[in-house]
Amino acid sequence: MSQVNHIRRFDLDIMRSWLCNAVMLGHVFGILVPLYGMEQIRASTFLAILSSYIRINVPGFLFLAGYLVLLNKKRFDARIFLSSRARSTLPLYLIFASLYYANNYLWLEGFRGLPDRLFGGTASYHLYFIPISLQLYLLTPLLVQAIRHWPKLTLVCSAIVSYGYTVAQIMVAPRLDRVYWCLPYLIYYCWGLYAASSETGLSGRLTRHPLTWRGIGGLCTAFLISAILYGGGIHLAAYAAIVPIPNPWYSYLLCALEYLKCCLGIFTALQLAMLLARRYQDSALWQRSITFASRNSYFVYLAHPFMLMWLYQIPFFALHPQWLLLVFPLVMWLATWGWITPLRGFRSTFDRLSA
After folding, report:
1. What pTM value is reported for the model?
2. Given 3-state DSSP classes, what are the helix, strand and coil percentages for the chain, each rounded to the nearest 5?
3. pLDDT higher than threshold 50 for residue 168
4. How far is 41 from 24, CA to CA, in rounded Å?
């Protein structure tokens, strides 16, 4: 989620900020959908579709991560890349994973379970993203070579591997070996690498220049339809036992629909971000706000479950959790600003005094 390029693109900052908010909203929907459940199946199905519509966050982050690896770079240095990603990812992850483990599992497992949960990303429900990212970072030197020598073949192979492994997870064993592996997400990362390395091709042009409003409207429509089919299908199958297509074809088609939905969602979000960047590129307020959100998205991703847990313990939000959709992201960003801004001011002062 972090960006190391010296040239920042405002549209990518906008997209990253939105994806971070989508993570927070998705976890609120995770509270609301079971709350309505079978008793109010129409309301819960509607909420499940909305949740499906915004749940492109992890694929979107991985697309951006791959895109930024090669964006505006003619030369890729594996050593510099891996060291920079390790410095920007591991310290905060280890701190927050340890805190979540202490809160969730220390009284059950003692310290013996900490290494496995740190390695597997299971200290909290949202930390699986970090081991997946680290695995992809380790594969990046090989993937970059493959993308540069056989771009289309590498992209197709990544799609086959991701789809095949996901079907195997559903049909054979959920979360094989109780570890989150990067293979189901390989396609999104490789797509980002491919788009950044082929700027003269269609994929590269479409990630730099927005479509017409009619094209974006069609894209949004296709994305909405895929989200309705996927989110509604998953929800009705789980809550109302309505499965329109018998197994195992239901699993095969559902996996394909999930990948289609996420790819359409990533492309739609990037296209809209490019249009918004053109409109608000001269606004100093928007520039500062979006840049702050983008730079601190990793911290917010790691820390937000603590804030959600604390807010949900307030009686009003426990009785009316739908208000969390409005309050939770705002409070989380304000808390982040209140904590990080003085820290950066202290750090800059210290740097000046020690210079």
Report:
1. 0.89
2. 80, 0, 20
3. yes
4. 23
